[in-house]
Design goal:
- By secondary structure, this protein is of the alpha/beta class.
- The protein has 15 helices and nine strands.
- It has helices at about 1-10, 10-20, 25-40, 40-60, 60-65, 85-95, 105-115, 140-145, 160-170, 180-190, 195, 210-220, 275-280, 285-310, 325-340; strands at about 70-80, 95-100, 120-125, 150-155, 200-205, 235-240, 250-255, 310-320, 345-350.
- A five-stranded parallel β-sheet has the order 2-3-1-4-5, sandwiched between helices.
- Helix 1 (about 1-10) packs across helix 2 and helix 9 packs across helix 10.
- The chain is globular, with a radius of gyration of 34 Å.
- Keywords: ATP-binding, GTP-binding, Nucleotide-binding.
- InterPro entries: P-loop_NTPase, RapZ-like, RapZ-like_N, RapZ_C.
Amino acid sequence: MARRSSEKTGKIPKIEKTLEVPKVPKAPKAAKPSKAAKLPKPPKTKNKRKKSSATTVSGRELAHLPDGETRDLVILTGLSGSGKMSAAKAFEDLGYYSVDNLPMELIPSFAELVLSSAEITHALLVVDVREGSRLDRFPSILKQVRKTLPTRVVYLEASEDALIRRFSETRRPHPLRREETVVDSIRAERGRLEPVRNVADIILDTTKFNVHELRAHINAQFERGHGDGQALSLSVMSFGFKNGVPAHADLVFDVRFLPNPHFVPKFRNLTGKDKRVAKYVMDFPQTKEFLDKATEMLTFLLPHYIQEGKSYLTVAIGCTGGQHRSVMIAEELRKRLADAGYRAKAEHRDMPR
């Protein structure tokens, strides 16, 4: 009876209620941290999408490689007979993955491929007159591609006489129109490629170049492994005004105001690379003053060109024939720029060889 009384006093329902406490589903309370932990997930996914979207648009992050290099695309184009195939081989030797005559509509897709590829970091596309009427769309396609990948356009050309001579030597028909004369085809091609030439970063006149000089020119502009101070490939070129100003010159200096060694009989058959001719020109005070001021101006300009992203600069020095004064000035200016830390070379377009 006492036991029963005790059981009655304990009120089993209360005990059952107490026993049920652990069974009360507190999972919702425990689940709150879990739900709170899940809350950041949507923003993370959103952030990832934003990052991926930004990369797709600009390509800045993926364009930079771990070793400090940058992925890039070079579009090589220009007139038939100007040396595109020789230039393409030079690019291949520099490690560029080369594709010839890719349909223009596929260029943006190719840029995306290069951007995401683990193997292709530097690529070259050859575009020429075979694209036909689609060449009119090249500027807009280029603008689209540059949002994805750093892209430069190299345009090769040559004088009409040089192109006629090259087609005559190779005995190959012009790719544009086989039924017309080579001259007509060359002129028609110039007109058709005008929209491409207008957006080119580098216009290279190969009239005076042989295959080896063209290769050296490409190597000087695009070989990698140089520091920031040498990111600009600088060419100081002498020329004669009687043969025309170099078409690809960025800056032109006229040194015809200096005394002309041509009128000194013992110097007439020599060039500005001869020490005696160089001393003759340097002995005039205006020569040294010009060199000092030209060097000062260039050392001011070059860092700004580099900051702007320019990779190649041609400084043209002209005299009457391109044999004495311009050659001497170009050589001296190159030395001064090299001493200032720039990767400079001297070229002499019209100097007798």
